[in-house]
Write a structure and sequence with these properties.
Layout (H helix, E strand, L loop, with lengths): L1 H13 L1 E3 L1 H11 L1 H21 L5 E10 L9 H28 L4 H25 L6 E14 L3 H68 L4 H36 L7 E3 L18 H7 L1 H22 L4 E12 L11 E11 L7 H68 L4 H36 L5
Length: 480
């Protein structure tokens, strides 16, 4: 029993009544393009920060290990062989000289004998010692370095890239704002389309009720013999047409409501009622509008994007030109090697600290730099032409939008007068029919005229809303 009592309350909760502002917020929260734009702006922020680091010194470290199949020799093969045999040759000659002296001076024989053998051996190994001293062991080489570089002058490239990163961030911000305005404009269009069809549904229902009442009256008159079968068939045909029109309006309303739910990220089957859906008339302020061109130029995000594109193209010219200008940078490095090349290739680590400046000057490129700079300048001119063309089109759009708003307002005033006359005509026709002085065909004609006048009034009201939306979009005031 309690569950049955809860069901009506649950149904009431499920029926959501949403205003235009609420639907705008839902659409902005769920739009995938806006979420993508936020990610792009975040990436642009990091890119801009990265561009600013180019002003600061950079520190890098390198390390390497190399295994060689052969060792490095500081002496050639012939030199090594000559030095290796030089000691033995000198020792042999010294020994021969000692023997000659001993023969000439026997008293020196004993002294030469005690000194000759060690001396000959020492001289014989001296050459090989020199060869061994120049021998290195570079089969396994270890190397590492710590490098610090500081750009001093890069032809203006660093500043240009920094500014380009900033302009890119502004361009993406303008693109995000433009997407936001497009989403809001789509929501507003779909919203008032649903309101329009809801009013037409009520109008179609009212028309069906009028024809049903007329059909019931004609059937009574037919039974009493004061109406013809032809009149009954005519009313029946009109009633069937009205019911078909009502069905079409209901189908169109369902599809428009689904479109609005899709734009706002809602479930397509979710029952949603709009705040203005039950209003009898759409509130419109009828007044002469004047478009402000200067305001539109300052608020249009697509024009702002083109302006940022022009700035990017100008900075790109500077970047291209900097590639063919001299560049200067300072550096400091600490290098570590094993074998130690600074101390006789010992198998130990040895290091060296060095500082300096590096200058790069392109001398001859066969005109490549000149051609590339001219190409960049041509692209910059192209962006300026697009910017100027966009301003001309915006000016045309403003005049067209202003004309459409004023025209829609005049049309609404006309339809209001027509509706008043149609209401009065229907009233007199209905009274005359029931008094028996007006035929059913004349009442049908009055009802049809009333339906057309009322439908035109609804269309005119929505047309005023739509033209005002378009004017605000052209002015860049969609979110207002």
């Amino acid at each position: 029993m309690s569950l049955l009592l809860m069901l009506p309350a649950m149904g009431a909760v499920a029926q959501r009544v949403l205003g235009l502002d609420s639907l705008r917020r839902l659409a902005l929260q769920n739009n995938k393009q806006l979420l993508s734009g936020q990610a792009q702006m975040e990436a642009a922020d990091y890119t801009q920060r990265a561009a600013k680091t180019a002003y600061l010194p950079k520190v890098s470290a390198d390390a390497a290990y190399i295994h060689n199949s052969r060792s490095t020799h500081l002496l050639s093969k012939d030199t090594r062989e000559t030095l290796g045999s030089a000691g033995e040759t000198a020792g042999s000659k010294l020994q021969a000289l000692a023997q000659q002296i001993a023969q000439q001076s026997p008293e020196m024989a004993q002294l030469l004998g005690s000194l000759g053998t060690p001396l000959v051996q020492a001289i014989g190994s001296a050459g090989q010692g020199v060869v061994d001293a120049f021998r290195t062991s570079t089969y396994n080489v270890y190397a590492g370095s710590l490098l610090l570089t500081q750009p001093l002058y890069m032809g203006g490239r660093i500043k240009a890239l920094d500014r380009m990163a900033g302009y890119t961030r502004q361009l993406l911000g303008a693109q995000y704002d433009q997407t936001t305005q497009d989403v809001i404009y789509s929501v507003d269009q779909a919203y008032w389309q649903v309101v329009s069809l809801a009013q037409k549904r009520r109008l179609a229902e009212s028309y069906v009720k009028l024809l049903q009442k007329l059909d019931d009256d004609v059937q009574k008159m037919l039974r009493e013999g004061v109406a013809t079968k032809a009149t009954s068939l005519t009313v029946g045909v009109k009633l069937n047409e009205a019911e078909m029109t009502l069905t079409k309006v209901e189908d169109g309303l369902s599809l428009s409501r689904m479109l609005l739910c899709q734009i706002c990220g809602l479930d397509l089957t979710e029952p949603v009622t709009l705040a203005d859906e039950g209003a009898e008339h759409v509130e419109t302020a009828l007044s002469e509008v004047q478009a402000d061109t200067a305001q539109a130029f300052s608020k249009r995000k697509d024009l702002e994007m083109l302006e940022q594109a022009v700035k990017l193209a100008d900075e790109n010219v500077k970047v291209v030109r900097s590639l063919y200008l001299p560049s200067l940078s300072a550096f400091g490095a600490y290098t570590l090697t094993n074998p130690n090349v600074y101390n006789g290739f010992q198998n130990k680590f040895g290091g060296n600290l060095s500082v300096g400046v590096a200058l790069y000057v392109p001398l001859w490129t066969w005109g490549e730099g000149r051609y590339r700079v001219r190409a960049a300048k041509s692209l910059a001119r192209s962006q300026r032409y697009l910017y100027d063309e966009a301003k001309e089109k915006i000016n045309l759009q403003l005049n067209q939008a202003q004309y459409k708003v004023n025209e829609a307002q005049k049309k609404l005033l006309t339809t209001q007068k027509n509706e008043e006359k149609a209401n009065e005509n229907l009233h007199y026709a209905d009274v005359g029919f029931h008094e028996g002085v007006i035929a059913a065909a004349d009442l049908l004609e009055a009802q049809t005229a009333w339906l057309q006048a009322r439908s035109e009034r609804v269309d005119a009201e929505i047309d005023v809303k739509m033209t005002e939306l378009y004017l605000n979009k052209v002015m860049g005031n969609v979110d207002e």
